[in-house]
Amino acid sequence: MTADRHAALAATHALPGIPVDADGPVFREPWEAHAFAMAVTLHARGLFTWPEWAAALAEEIARAQAEGDADCGDTYYRHWLATLERLVADKGVTTSANLARYRDAWDHAADRTPHGKPIELSPEDFAG
To answer: What digits encode the pLDDT tens for the residues 55-105?
Structure first.
């Protein structure tokens, strides 16, 4: 078993609620797998513990539900990503402003990228 697969399976056991099948985590979109992998990597590097992550994710889901999220399962990884962004900002890895800057650049790059092609950031994407 590869280290990545072992880490992914460890995460699914440590964090109840992750959508899984017999092979491990299940993702509807590639970005969900990327968000999952970023969290697993940051955990492996010691940025947070799984209990800390679970508490932060539960807090994010509760906040979203209080704001009207119906919690049908289709927004799980949106909460995952929001939790990831909050934790890296809270831990001083980056700032909320820098996250917003990259989010805007990504949106700009996605807008100019033809469907089916990989999205690549360039300096022009940060120009605003």
So the answer is: 999 999 999 999 998 777 788 889 999 999 999 999 999 998 999 999 999
- Asked if 76 contacts 39 with a C-beta cutoff of 8 angstroms, the reply is no
Three-state secondary-structure class, residue 21: strand
| Exposure b/e, 17-54, CB count within 10 A at least 16 = b | ebeeeeeebeeeeeebeebbbebbebbeeebbebeebb
Query: pTM of the entire structure?
Result: 0.77
Domain extent at residue 104: 95-128
3-state helix, strand, coil in the chain (%, to 5): 60, 5, 35
| 123 shares its domain with 74 | no
* Residues 46 and 101 occupy one common structural domain: no
